[in-house]
Design a protein that fits this description.
single chain, mainly alpha, 71% helix
Length: 334
């Protein structure tokens, strides 16, 4: 569901940057205020890298000719809580945009909103967290995860439609586009829910305190060791990004599929100074465009998965570490 720049006008793209920046600012303030980072720093890093790797695997949606991948917002929120999860998913999307040209630079604010703000700051606190606060069990995790992923994807897909409508993309008329976007992302959301269930229940079986801490918006107790969980997620990220990504479906994802059936193409174009400037910047920053080496022979998938997972982990950890450091500095000064 990564939007390309051609789907947005500069005005809409800029507005979504402002909205997402405000949401990230709120999340950072909340994390710093509640001191949620110290113990969760390694967890933020490896869970972000795992989601990056998992997003490289497109799974086929039977009988449609389409595919989908997880967005990961609900999975991250289940592990970290909504605000830390937003920082982690934002790190994933920034790395995808700048290093791999996945999603447009002008559209980055919209992508963070659709795949990060909606699941982490809207669906998780309003739906999943209250459900889990009544008592965490494997059945509750399963029900809450599937429902939250489905609703999160539905809201995200509808947000994409509204953003293209506001941008005046005449090639994607509202009624046709929305009638295709919502059903295909209903299927994708259900599969993402199943994947989220598997990961969260596995972590819950190892360290129930991790999910309990996220649901209660409290720090992990110092006595709780998360080393095994961190190592497991790091290994999974390497295996998924470096190995399983080679077997991703080649079918167009849900957004591309809906665009092709609405406009006859998934690659719309806009020619103006802002779009051209964004494209030039992205060309300069993309070391492995489309998750491949410059020759475009398809041999760079493994390297992309490993590099992207590592850089995402570093960026997520750096963001959390900066917040932890500024809180400690503030405490010392006071």
């Amino acid at each position: 569901m990564h939007m390309a720049d051609a789907l947005l006008t500069p005005a809409v793209g800029g507005t979504m940057y402002a909205v997402s920046a405000g949401a990230l600012g709120y999340a950072a303030h909340k994390i710093r205020k509640d001191d949620l980072t110290d113990k969760k720093l390694p967890l933020m890093a490896v869970s972000g890298s795992f989601v990056f790797a998992a997003q490289m695997i497109n799974f086929t949606i039977p009988a449609t000719g389409s595919s989908g991948h997880i967005c990961g917002g609900i999975l991250l929120a289940g592990l970290l809580g909504g605000e830390p999860a937003l920082l982690s998913i934002a790190a994933v999307l920034v790395i995808q945009c700048l290093l791999f040209a996945d999603g447009g630079l002008l559209a980055l604010g919209a992508n963070i909103f659709n795949m990060g703000v909606i699941p982490c700051l809207i669906v998780y606190p309003l739906l999943m967290r209250p459900f889990l606060q009544k008592g965490i069990s494997k059945k509750r995790i399963a029900a809450a995860s599937i429902l939250s992923c489905v609703i999160g994807l539905q809201l995200g897909a509808f947000s994409v439609v509204l953003e293209t409508l506001a941008s005046g993309v005449t090639e994607l008329p509202f009624s046709t586009f929305v009638s295709l976007m919502q059903p295909i992302h209903l299927a994708i959301g259900f599969v993402e829910g199943l994947i989220t269930v598997g990961v969260l229940i596995y972590v819950y079986s190892m360290r129930p305190e991790i999910l309990e801490s996220a649901a209660s918006s409290e720090k992990l107790p110092l006595r709780v060791s998360i080393g095994r969980t961190v190592i497991t997620l790091a290994i999974l990220a390497a295996l998924v990004g470096g190995g399983l990504s080679l077997y991703a479906s080649s079918n167009p994802d849900g957004l591309e599929w809906a665009m092709e059936r609405t406009a006859g193409t998934s690659e719309l174009e806009r020619e103006d100074g802002v779009h051209e400037a964004a494209s030039r910047i992205q060309e300069q920053t993309s070391l492995l465009p489309d998750y491949d080496f410059a020759d475009g022979e398809g041999t760079g998938t493994t390297a992309s998965g490993l590099i992207g997972a590592a850089v995402t982990a570093a960026l997520a950890a750096a963001a959390g570490g900066l917040l932890a450091a500024t809180r400690k500095k503030g405490n010392f000064a006071s």
